[in-house]
Write a structure and sequence with these properties.
Number of helices: 26
Structural class: mainly alpha
Helix content: 55-70%
Strand order of the largest sheet: 2-1-3
CATH topology of the domain at 4-135: Potassium Channel Kv1.1, Chain A
CATH class of the domain at 4-135: Alpha Beta
CATH superfamily of the domain at 4-135: Potassium Channel Kv1.1, Chain A
CATH architecture of the domain at 4-135: 2-Layer Sandwich
Length: about 575
Amino acid sequence: MASSSVMNNHNRLSIAMERTGQWVFSQEIPTDVLIEVGEANFSLHKFMLVAKSNHIRKLIVESKEPDLTRIDLSGIPGGPEIFEKAAKFCYGVNFEITVHNVAALRCAAEYLQMTDKYCDNNLAGRTEDFLSQVALSSLSGAIVVLKSCEDLLPMAEDLKIVQRCVEVASSKACNEANFPSRSPPNWWTEELSILDIEVFGRIISGMRKRGAKALIVASALITYAERSLRDLVRDHSGNGANSSDLVESDVRIRQKEILESIVALLPSEKAAFPINFLCCLLRSAIFLKASDNCKNELEKRISIILEHVTVDDLLVLSFTYDGERLFDLDSVRRILAGFVEKEKNMAVFNAGDFREVCSTAMHRVAKTVDAYLGEIATYTELSISKFNGIANLVPKGARKVDDDLYRAIDIYLKAHPNLDEIEREKVCSVMDALKLSYEARVHASQNKRLPVQIVLHALYYDQLKLRSGVEDRNMQEAVTTKSQLQTDVSLVRENEALRSELVRMKLYISDLQKSAPGGITGTSSKSVPKKPRFFSSMSKTLGKLNPFKHGSKDTSNIDDGVDINKPRRRRFSIS
């Protein structure tokens, strides 16, 4: 590639020198000076050059040599090709001034001091006329001149050529955005995208000063990013970035500078850009190791409009360009945390309880996050802490049912078969088994990958549902049922304790009757009647605590085989 460029330059120099020789020798006067411009040599006449160029006149006059025959002008802007045209101008030979060479000719005229002050109708005046009357009369012309100025700095800047072009381009771009003159309407964004990022940024700033809307500026920025960062933002290929170690090549360093400049140009209106574009920029920022300020700005913008995010958008952030490895998921966590914080602040502002009532946007994001977890759960490098960290960021009230989260957990357990019981319980801790639908509970009850505790919860809940004949209605019913279960378990334990105490007391009285002489009667010793009084007192106490609705409070005649009435919820074992 480099050798081809050198050959092309050499061919152009040869052709230029050949053409110059043809019109110089046609003067039939021997040349008396050799002008060196880089590798090119031009045999010319001093008097023809001095007539138009004050710079060449000074070199000849101020030379210590009595007869100067060689002059080095390698510093002339535009190189040999532009000097050839300047020399033609000195000789009165016609040549064409175009939007592509007018900036270089203007700079060369300044370098050679070919101004109207030195000679009327000189090259500087001719190029100025072309600039104002032709080149800067259209947006396309101004952009082409700006592009040519990239190799003419700082002289083009000193001559105000760049500034004039920027002002014209800003004004005409605004006009085209509001009143398109041709199709497609956004053709002007493609025109701007050929410019260097620094000049492009100046045009965008000029458009803002002229009142350009955020969506217009966003359109230009999107087009520029897709063109200048094509392999990262548009093609999503990474352009050979599949290797594990990224070499900081000149191309990547330049792309990093462009990306940071684009982010700095983003308008303050947060919703001006589609979220998938912002996600692509953020992945590029992570890949190119952009500054923290750059990444933080993109994360904030994404979190503000996160309700529009799709699973694919989140996956864009999460994987390398080859799709084989997970990126650091900290960006996803920060984005989700920022969105949840925004929702909390809005709930407080609206005097609501964020824990109980979540917005439609929060419900939508919760569903998307659960589906996203299901996609990344298959990757073995995903740790439990990172998986749970993302899942726990979603408020409990944002999930009407936990079916999508259960699916993600099941996929994770399947992809990580070597987890022990404690680790599997930790994975499942982000899910509420009582918020699963009937189909999900049936699946969970037969899922051997789940911890035993989760399976028992699912079975127990289904048993209560069947006994009560109540179908799934909403999350509040599930929470109420769970609270009732805890109350019933406590009640059963108290009942069992009371029954054991009654049986023990019955055996105690029976033993006293057998051991006392003549039995326990009303005419026995004074100490004997105290026992019934003790038992009677105990009976009264137990009677007050007796939870049975239809049982007798008189427990003095209870036998071992007596069937004590139990409350409606009698069995709590899993059959």
